[in-house]
Structure formats: C-alpha cells, structure tokens
Amino acid sequence: MWDFRPSTLEEFIGQKRLKEELSIYLSSIKKRKEVFPHTLFVGAPGLGKTTLARIIAFELRRELKITSGPVLDKPGAVAGILTNLSEGEILFIDEIHRIPKPCQEILYSAMEDFALDILIGKNQGARSVRLNLPRFTLIGATNKPNLLLGPLLDRFQLSFKLDYYQEEELKDILLKVSSLWGLKLSEESACKLAKAGKGIPRQALNLLRRLKEFMHHFTPQDSKILEVTEGEIKAFFQLLDIDEWGLTPEDRRCLFTLYRDFKGGPVGLNSLALSSRISPDELETLYEPALIRLGLMARTRKGRVITKLGEKYLKERNLFHVSL
Ligand SMILES: Nc1ncnc2c1ncn2[C@@H]1O[C@H](COP(=O)(O)OP(=O)(O)OP(=O)(O)O)[C@@H](O)[C@H]1O
C-alpha cells in the first residue's frame, strides 16, 4: 500500500480537540440525516485538511467532489461545478483563497440560499436568472484565510484550525504506516524520523517513503520485513543532507542568506526569497514556518530576523562561511 489515508475519525491521529468537536457534529448530523454545515479548515499544507474532508464524506456516506481554488478561476467554472452537485454532496475546495474575488462572490448565495444568480445578456438587455441548487456542503481548505472575502468567511458555519503535530503523534503515524509498508522501525528510529517531520504528517510520511526506497536499495531482495536501525537512519539523513530537525539545504540557505546578505535582518519576504533563490510563496509556506517554530528565525513588524539561536545553529554547524 503506497498511500495511507485514515478513512474514519477514529483512525485519524492527533488534532485531539478538533476531533472531539467534529465527532459531535458528525454524530448529530448523522442522526438527523441533515446536510453537513459548510466547513473551513485552516492550516499549513500537509496537516490533514483533505484527509478530514474525506473522513467527513466517508462517515456520512456522502459523495465527495474535490477541486481547488486555481481551477475555479472563471464564473463559468464555479457555476459548472455547483450545478453538477447532487443533494447532500460534499464539495471540497483546496486552496480556496486562490479563487478570484468575483468568483468568491458567486459562492455567497450558493452557500446561503442554495441558489445561483446568473446574468443573461449584455448591457440594457441583461437580466438575472435564479437557478436553484441542491442542498450541498462546501468544505474549504486554506492556509491564508485572510485572502478570503469577509462575507465568504461568514458563510462557513464551522471553522477549524489545524495545529502542527507533536513528535509523539507523528511517531504514531509513522509506526502505523511503516508496518503497512513492511518496514520495521525501532522506537528510536521512529522518534528520529518524527523529529525530522517538522510537525507535518506529509513531511514525515515523505521521509518514510524515501526511507523505504533507501532500505530496499541496501537490503537483499528476498527480505519481506525491512528492519530499520538507528545507524540506517543516520546514513539516510546523511544521504538527504538533512539534520536531526529535518532542516534541508534549502532551509539552511534561507537562514544563512538572512545572516550573510541582510546582516541578520530585518528583511522583507520578497527580498529574502530572491536572495535565497526560492519563490516567496515557497519561503512563506514551506521553509520559514519550521525555522520560526524551531526559534531560528523570527517574524517582526519590520521583517524576518535571525535569532541568537539561529546564529548559534549556523556557528555550531560551521555554516558561517559556506558558499551557497
Ligand atoms: N492525522 C493524520 N494521521 C495520519 N495521516 C495523516 C494525518 N494527517 C495527514 N495525514 C497524511 O498526510 C498526508 C497529507 O495530508 P492531506 O493531503 O490531508 O493534507 P492537506 O492539509 O490537505 O495538505 P494540502 O493543503 O497541501 O492539500 C496524507 O498522505 C495523509 O494521509
């Protein structure tokens, strides 16, 4: 089994408070056979927003349609997907903040009144026609809720914020998935991988996927169970050039660029991204969250700054003079 997605809330590890609340809504909606309320999941990429949408659909035995903000870039695209929904169906829109504003506006009446107002004709001859929609559930996922129009935000009856995972929780996820994949992780190996997962299941599972390939490469072909020792984890981390926190050469490059090119900051996101040779979006969503959570970088009102701990990190690893 290559991918692992929990299909019930019980199988979903972590996010304890969110799970408790969600399970109450699921059971009460199930009892009353109602349509699930419009729900927004807010959190960084890879924390499990899509997985939760799938779980809601599975638990309620509802159909799930999956799309994403960039696909819904024209009013016609939004109208098209809405008019193809059936009663009780769940529409999941990933990166909902990337829907252009005029298209977000179409969603207001669809969510509130289950109706679509379509403008037919042009100029003076134009008239508005109201099209009734089946009752459906919209589940949105975003890591930038501030880019959603206020009235759209208001139409989500439920909103959940996903937290980064504790190492212990990531460890449980890794142990569960590794056994499905025929990998035998010792407790210590699982802890090391979990620590390098940067609080994000997708990152931890990506590491596990690569570890599996690594193990297959170095183990005789007939072994059914691949046993991973601490020594192998060490060699694996060396091969990937990641440290015990899971920081990659790109993470270190951002930190070092901040130190070298901007004298430790403060510096704006775009300038730091340009000098680090990565896109501002990648810097903001992929790299800086971990650097900030580890206390190596900080975000101030004037921009990003390196912390004392960040300087210590570079110094200890002899990274003050590397050429990037
Ligand atoms: N709590 C969890 N327990 C087990 N596996 C999880 C959990 N959360 C996420 N995963 C796994 O991590 C991977 C990423 O999860 P998912 O695609 O749901 O994240 P996401 O928040 O929707 O990311 P994106 O916003 O980038 O689409 C999936 O393989 C999923 O099965």
Automatic annotation (TrEMBL):
EC category: hydrolase
The name this protein goes by in its record: Holliday junction branch migration complex subunit RuvB
Note on domains (UniProt): Has 3 domains, the large (RuvB-L) and small ATPase (RuvB-S) domains and the C-terminal head (RuvB-H) domain. The head domain binds DNA, while the ATPase domains jointly bind ATP, ADP or are empty depending on the state of the subunit in the translocation cycle. During a single DNA translocation step the structure of each domain remains the same, but their relative positions change.
Residues binding ATP, per UniProt: 5, 46, 49-51, 112-114, 155, 165, 202
Lineage: Bacteria, Pseudomonadati, Thermodesulfobacteriota, Thermodesulfobacteria, Thermodesulfobacteriales
Source species, domain of life: Bacteria
Positions with a binding annotation for DNA: 299, 301, 304
Keywords: ATP-binding, Cytoplasm, DNA damage, DNA recombination, DNA repair, DNA-binding, Helicase, Hydrolase, Nucleotide-binding
One MF annotation (Gene Ontology) recorded for this entry: ATP hydrolysis activity
Binding-site positions, Mg(2+): 50
Catalysed reaction, written as an equation: ATP + H2O = ADP + phosphate + H(+)
Family: Belongs to the RuvB family.
NCBIfam families in alphabetical order: PRK00080.1, ruvB
Database matches in InterPro entries: AAA+_ATPase, AAA_lid_4, DNA_helicase_Holl-junc_RuvB, P-loop_NTPase, RuvB-like_N, RuvB_wg_C, WH-like_DNA-bd_sf, WH_DNA-bd_sf
Residue numbers spanned by region Head domain (RuvB-H): 244-324
Annotated Gene Ontology cellular component terms: cytoplasm; Holliday junction resolvase complex
General function of this protein: The RuvA-RuvB-RuvC complex processes Holliday junction (HJ) DNA during genetic recombination and DNA repair, while the RuvA-RuvB complex plays an important role in the rescue of blocked DNA replication forks via replication fork reversal (RFR). RuvA specifically binds to HJ cruciform DNA, conferring on it an open structure. The RuvB hexamer acts as an ATP-dependent pump, pulling dsDNA into and through the RuvAB complex. RuvB forms 2 homohexamers on either side of HJ DNA bound by 1 or 2 RuvA tetramers; 4 subunits per hexamer contact DNA at a time.
The enzyme's E.C. designation: 3.6.4.-
GO BP terms in the entry: DNA recombination; DNA repair
Location relative to the cell: Cytoplasm
Subunit structure: Homohexamer. Forms an RuvA(8)-RuvB(12)-Holliday junction (HJ) complex. HJ DNA is sandwiched between 2 RuvA tetramers; dsDNA enters through RuvA and exits via RuvB. An RuvB hexamer assembles on each DNA strand where it exits the tetramer. Each RuvB hexamer is contacted by two RuvA subunits (via domain III) on 2 adjacent RuvB subunits; this complex drives branch migration. In the full resolvosome a probable DNA-RuvA(4)-RuvB(12)-RuvC(2) complex forms which resolves the HJ.
Residues annotated as domain AAA+ ATPase: 35-168
